[in-house]
Amino acid sequence: MRGHGFLMANYVPGHSVVHRAPLWSKFLVVAACGTASFLIVDWVVSLAAFALMCGLFLLSGAGFKRLAGSIRMVAPILLVIGLFQWWQLGGPTAARIVLNVLVCVVAASVLTAATPVQELLDGVVSISRPFRRFGADPERFALTIAVMLRSIPFIAGAFADVRDSARARGLERNPRALVLPVFITTVAYARQTGDALAARGLGEADELPGSD
Fold this sequence. Notes:
The protein has helices spanning about 15-20, 25-40, 45-60, 65-90, 90-115, 115-130, 140-170, 175-200. By secondary structure, the chain is an all-alpha fold. It starts with 16 loop residues before the first helix and ends in a 13-residue tail after the last helix.
């Protein structure tokens, strides 16, 4: 199975300003971009924020190719959203909505491109620790994110492989030839992941009350 990136860029080792920035500041940038996407009402401001995030991404040393890859994955969806919003609300509003989504995508890519996965997961555990008093399990939460980060590229790769295979057989327009193999592959991968976690004593259900 080929490896594929999806939405967020993989970690790129380096010593840039972005790499050396504290993890909390990177989390803050992502949170600020997410909040700003609901507050910005001018597409020019959205464009400026998008340019700033692209600059930070390139400053991390990840390169233009990775930046283009992160954007390309969401481009078809954003095209549909943009055209619909243009039809309903006009060009400026459509541009603002699309740019705000891109700002969030690139901000998340900056975080993952300039932060090792283990450091990112440790940060998630630290941030989640105050919620332990409400019954949250920070380690389990971090494990969930780790599984997600590993699974999404695999599923994206499965879809790309099935699409190429269907195209070679002239079935690229047949939904069954695309969806069913991806579904089967995804279910098998989920079962293998679950078995691997269970073998390590992770992800097991709590003992039922009254059981010995």
